[in-house]
Description:
GO terms for molecular function: hydrolase activity. By secondary structure, the chain is α/β, with parallel strands linked by helices.
Amino acid sequence: MKYVGVDACKCGWMAAIMDKTGVRCEVFPEFAGIWDAHSDIQRLFVDIPVGLAAEGDRGADMEARRFLPPGFKSSIFNTPVRKALYARTNAEAKSINQELTGKSLSEQSLGISKKIREVDRWLQAHQKEQGKVFESHPEICFIHCAGGPLSYGKKDFLGTLERMKIVRKFVKSAEDLLVSVRERYTRTNVAADDILDAMVLAVVAKECDGRPSFFPAGVEEPPQDETGLPMAVWYHDFSNPR
């Protein structure tokens, strides 16, 4: 069985794969390639919106943003509503989102729309695998792994060291893995935070033991979008395992 953490990067998708043999990091130009290479995935945590609202804001985004400390909240972008995601142009997407949510879309949200569409299309075409794919957020996972808020942003040098220290508690080879990816890809194509984010997502995919927590909290099951996909941000509460 494999537990996979996936983060979007400039040249595609950064994936950290954990199984009984250890951990390895691989880069895939397309999300589908991860599944083509690893058909025996048990759980995959990915830092990309999955379930898409028809109108209004996703409760998952609002609660996840509230959970993050000041200075980190902006790492959660507004998720486009489904109709806006499949608009023909950015201008049309912004207009549709404004109409259906009362908010336009930031350049960051527009910038990841292609990745959101890629994952959404794959999930719609592979319904049997939908239960293995969990939307997550690395900063939330790092906080739970560390047992408290982090001190530095992920783009800071000290932030890289801070996150490496956290990941190393679970992945002893984390530093070697980061160096190995860096030797194969430029920093423009795969940043250090992409690698660390993928690793912490893989850690949580494994450690949650099939019982992850999620935002929005306080409900037995997360709300679903019109296609049946959960609109949730999943994580593992290490201090309160189920």
